[in-house]
Amino acid sequence: MDIEAELKQLRRRVDDLEVVVNDLAGQVRAVHPELVALKSEATRRFDVADGQMARIVHRLDNVTTQVWSLRDDLPLLIRRAFDDRDRRTASNDD
User: Would the pTM of this model clear 0.70, i.e. be above it?
Assistant: First the structure.
């Protein structure tokens, strides 16, 4: 094969590749701002979700504390209720 023909074919292939690369570069340039905006929006939404989760965790901690407190106080409350009932029953018997 002729060297001139090979060079011509290689130049044509390089030109074709340059066209494809330039096209892809243009598409990437067009998509990049959208990706940056998407990242920004996703970060904002995750920050909101993190804040909501922090509030939920805080509320659950409060509920847990109250349940444990009730568990500790329940025997005394029941004893008082029975004592009140016994006093009422004894005063009604008199």
Answer: no
